[in-house]
Known about the structure:
- The chain is mainly beta.
- It has one domain (2-209): Ribonuclease Z/Hydroxyacylglutathione hydrolase-like (Metallo-beta-lactamase, Chain A, 4-Layer Sandwich), CATH 3.60.15.10.
- The chain has 3 helices and 14 strands.
- The protein has helices at residues 118-124, 142-152, 175-179, and strands at residues 2-5, 11-14, 18-21, 40-42, 61-63, 67-71, 74-82, 93-101, 104-108, 129-133, 156-160, 186-190, 192-194, 205-209.
- Strands 6-7-8-9-10-11-14-12 form an 8-stranded mixed β-sheet, with helices on one face. It has a 6-stranded mixed β-sheet with strand order 5-4-3-2-1-13, with no helix packed on it.
- It is globular and about 40 Å long.
- The two termini are 19 Å apart.
Amino acid sequence: xxIVWHGHSCFEIAxxxxxxxxxxxxxxxxxxxxxxxxxxxxxxxDHFDHNCARIVKxxxxxxxxxxxRTVKGVKISGIEADHDDAKGGKRGRVVIFSFVLGGVRxxxxxxxxxxxxxxxxxxxxxxxxxxxxxxxxxxxxxxQALQLVAAINPRIAIPMHFRVGGLSLxxxxxxxxxxxxxxxxxxxxxxxxxxxxxxxPESTEYWVFSP
Length: 211
């Protein structure tokens, strides 16, 4: 199993199949364009920095809808959440996707703008690897993200959608998120990480990827 971060909310999760999440074109954000060949592309919402499927190579299927489905043998579930704290009145809504790949259950929160309620968290079910936005402004911020991680209790929490060098969006850095993490639980994994299901910790670790 391999996870590669392509900046912002774009990840490549690969086992026997490859899933790409929220692709962007790079140049619109001041980042390098992702180089991904995927079988499935998940798009959490139709904003320019999350919906650039044309950047992805391969014979892929796009999933952007709510509900449960099986695509190319992968079970995928999408639940609705707000992109802001006004019930979607400012920026609309997003789809939070969960899926199982290689026996590992992943959850990608997209541009989640407000804390999930109990029903939404229960709908997600157990989560092994959680991708959570931490940059504030357009999403929840670092302290809110830590609260969400505590509520979902994944085995791995991966921050995304935060300010890095060159990024043209005025969002926060990862610093406030990192302030709340115990040092023994924090791992800097570089641009990619490979692991087996059996390697996952019993209690939450925080994996920080570099662009």
